[in-house]
Amino acid sequence: MGAYLVKRLAASLLTALLASMLVFLLVRLVPGDVVAQMMGQAGGEAAAGAMREFFGLDQPVYVQYFRWLTQVLQGDLGTSWTRGLPVTMLIGQAFLVTLEIGLLTLFVATVVGVPLGIVAGIYEDGPLDTFIQSINVVGLSAPVFWVGLMLLVGVSSMFAWSPPLRYVPPARSLADNLSILALPIASLAFLQIAAYSQFVRQNVVSALHQEYVRTAVAKGVPVRTIFFKHILRNVLIPIVTFMGLILIQILGGVVIIESLFALPGLGRLLLTAIETRDYPVLQGALLIVVVAAMVVNLVVDLAYRLIDPRVRVS
Amino acid sequence: MSFSRMLDRKGALRISLMGAAVLGLLHSAPASAQSEGLYGPVADNAVMGGRLNMGLLVEPPGLDPFHQAADARIRVSVLMYQGLFYEAPSGTAEPLLAESYEVSDDGLTYTIKVRQGVKFHTGADMTAEDVAYSYNYIRDPENGSPGAGDFAIITDITAVDATTVEIKLSTPNASLPMTLGNKYGAVVPAGTFDDENARNLMNAQSVGTGPFKLAEFVPNSHIVLDKNEEYWEQGMPYLDGVDFAILPNSASMLVALRNQRVDLVALSRPQDVQQVEGVEGLEIERWPSLGQASIDLGSETKPLDDVRVRQAISLAVDKSEVMQASIGDFGTVLGTVPAGLQEQWGLPLDQVPMQGPDNEKAKALLAEAGMTDGVTMTLTTINGYDWMDAAAVTLREQLGEIGVTLDIQKVDLGVWINNFRSSQMGFTFNDWATQPDPNLLFYRHFHKKPEGADFRNWANDEASALLDEGRAEADPAKRREIYNEFQTILAETVPTIMLFSPDHITVRSARVQNYVQHPTGWYYGLARTYLSE
What we know:
The complex is a heterodimer of chains A (314) and B (533). With 314 residues, chain A is mainly alpha-helical. Chain A is built from 13 helices and no strands. Chain A folds into two domains: 2-73, no CATH class; 88-313, MetI-like fold. Chain B folds into three domains: 3-72 and 210-288 and 503-531, D-Maltodextrin-Binding Protein, domain 2 (3-Layer(aba) Sandwich), CATH 3.40.190.10; 85-194, Dipeptide-binding Protein, Domain 1 (Dipeptide-binding Protein, domain 1); 291-502, Dipeptide-binding Protein, Domain 3 (Dipeptide-binding Protein, domain 3, Roll). Chain B is 29% helix and 22% strand.
């Protein structure tokens, strides 16, 4: 286990380094830089040149990269060129918001989606299954921004209520925090519940048709035991894999939802950083996203080993 | 000399109030009247206190007035930072932190008396020293201010004594006071930028003299401004503070308005107003604008280097049809200046040459240019500017009539600005705004290089000479003549086609009183706003 972990971590570090290089180059390939954005249709070339020098943009790209990498290795992601705040702080604040949305969405999607999938699977092709599947089709095909907008407009016209505009962290007031996040999480979870329950249903159905289940039924094993020991245990592994995938997918949808509901999360931070060509924020945030995705994958892999003894051997 | 300039202060005020009352009832045309005086009308029976929630559709990329040119920054920062003069909507520069000024006979020296009893948000008293420091900082290109270009004609700024500043120019400039307004830079304590971190700190605390101080700026979330208790205008501002919520999505913004999460919003797409029309408790107002939606024609791009092709395009364009498609009725069709400048400085609309649609003449010009078989061009639109999409389709139809085929190319704003700044704009839509002054509107954009930026590679000697003349002329009547002549050349040789000014549309809850939208789109009006409850 120890050697495995070291190997995985080393590979992850290398990937992160390569990713950071790629990110660094890619953001600079997009035409226009922060100075052009700050100057707009004003400003002479002398002033623009002075600003480029100030940001170090007059240096060759490899010099800029090594300067940045040296900083990063010291745990400093630099200062935002437009907001004037430390990138680590900006990302830290934004990441917590996104993480909360992500985890809560995952929680809701799991708690609702898995039982729905199991029920649908057990009653395969029955009316309940058909009903759940019909809802899932809507969930899978409706784009996140549309669901978000419909929820917002729907709730607003039915209850004359819309979420408060200023984000409140859960530490300050959990009730306020949840009232702000309820709609965004519901919009994100809608799709994931559908995806989840479809996936679980499929696994339950295939487990039900396995010969060992048929044998167990024939032997008169109680249904409870069959369900928990033979079906659920086998369905659990793909569910954990799927959970990791879903979390990454949620992080993708969060970009849109954060803009729709004015949430100061990582997605929006990235989006504004792209618009303003705020390289330090962009590089820092992308690096964190890459690292976060790697951590999720690693945790999923480790979770396998706990659940399934066979993986431990190989 | 225009009518409003001949009026005394009181007369102008009376007329503007009357205009406002009439238009308040009608709602159908933009409120053309703007009150005199700083920021907006002083209320007779204002209620003190309360915090106003304003929605922002575009987030300021930063709040530093010295290094950030984005309009979203200026809209908010004018409440915290002040320059020597205020850009009155009538087109005059009213003393703000200046008390009065004198111009030498040769027009090269401005002696400015600085207002007494003004305190910075830091608590320090403002002196002439601070004024000289601040403007010297902006005009030195080494400091990287986007305003440096506008200040290039200044050769020297010195504090003569504690209350007097002397500004020396290389050439007379009648719009100097307007240049010393609030777009770029502001008066800040001397030595502010000695601290390397000063420009970053401006996103955390304000160091200006304005009616509001910065309390908090959380990117992607909100900006909190508190009343400046030591503000120099007696009894101002009425509000205890302004809370800006940043909500980049107009559908969500309209929902927030309906549910009273925000009290006031300036809409960026005028047609969105239809979604809140008739909602109880919401007041919708239209205001004239200094912004313009236009088509730019860069002469570096073939066949736009041929003036006949540009003229043909100008003649084929039906501006009011383009406006209808883009923003409906919520704007004003233009001649050669934005709507807010037309009365004061615009060439009368019936005298503007090369206005269409006149397809026969346009086709003849194209034929003369040797394009009898038609021609294909690429029109650039900018991502995020919704009006351009509808306008592009309409323009394609219109130009199709004279045998010009348009390919529409949509680019990211950053890409577009890059092309624009390197004078490689080609054939593109543009969306920009100005201060209420013809020199500030035209000079940098249209004077040939190196004095101007000549983004469109127009390189017109005659027009450049007129711009120099107009800048130096102090007499308003003569100045107007010069700029009319300039506009005639502009319309005849078509480096740009100004299409329309979209009205500023504000939606406020009924408790918001006395808010006047400045034609620049900046939120000056909040300094005179109060809440009725």
